[in-house]
Amino acid sequence: MSIPHLSLQDARHLQLAAQGLLTPPRRKATSADVLACIRRMALLQIDTIQVVARSPYLVLFSRLGHYEPGWLDSLLARGEIFEYWAHEACFVPREDYRLLRHRMLDPAAMGWKFSAQWLETHKDEIAQLLARVRQDGPVRASDFERKTGKGNGWWDWKPEKRHLEVLFTAGQLMVSERHNFQRLYDLAERVRPDWDDARDLPSQERVQRDMVHASCRALGLVKTGWVADYYRLRRGKYDELLHRLADEGELLPVRVEGWKHGAFVHASLSDELAQAQGGTLKATHSAVLSPFDPLVWDRKRASELFGFDYRIECYTPAPKRQYGYFVLPLLRRGKLVGRLDAKAHRKEGVFEIKSLYLEERVKMSQALAQDLLKAIQKLAEWHQTPSLRLGAIPAPLLALWQG
After folding, report:
1. What pLDDT does residue 154 have?
2. pTM of the full predicted structure?
């Protein structure tokens, strides 16, 4: 059987199809669609910045359109999803707890996220904290007063916050729900009373295989160098595992124009692969993406597949930023065509476009202008900030918007 040959745009379309970004939603979203969307992506990264909607809510909006953000909060409270370190801090479907349990049992491998020294140094206070949770129920970091004055940012956590985070990374505490996006920590055995390590824990070999498979399913189209990043697996050679998955029928080998090495398409996209070969797989969706969207969170992959060199700049000192603090990639019909620096002024009902940059290769047209304006306007209306405030926008694009 011959190996399918794909154009680069076909390859993009297949990844967009897997991610739910190829075509617009066909109907109004329901609460069940939120869980289905997370399962489709496997992971939904968490970030607290809210210049526009916080990242997990924005990632869902890019795929579902208008939906109720509270549906995500309810999924966590009901235990349909849980939080843990996957790509980074992520919401993960309940059934994939088994994939991450080994990390909890060996937290020393988690780098800065865990400190055995902190656990040992503060073992008495941590034991008291656990006893409090066991007796009185879930706690928030804000339930504990800072004794040394105001903190100076992320790395200046009060001791109780560090205790909670160390216990969370070690899997002794889990996030039972969030109130105003603040975590409530509870005992793991109360959040997951059904789980038994002796009975339910798979082998590490099986976990690696299933994580790689889940990455391939979520990405749709993969090459070897992209596999490790999705779950932050150790970088290494995954050729053998990918070929084994292909032998099992889970992956379909393909060739992509311009690539020296082969690639794979997940078997769930066999119909879309046939459409791509027939020239009928088209991208019709345009959306504003989160900086932490799975489509762009791997800078190397975004560059190789979309020719889009994207770096998150919110953690970069202001003088060194090229585009802005919280810059949103712009997806337009199968291509990443630009980036938007925006801010939602909720009290004023204004969605401010501080600046908008188009990629050098993008050709200006009325259709492009309409697609981008429509996507931005929909996002603004979902934020309940329907009035657009226009800042630094390319003159040709602004002319088409105002024409």
Report:
1. 40
2. 0.95
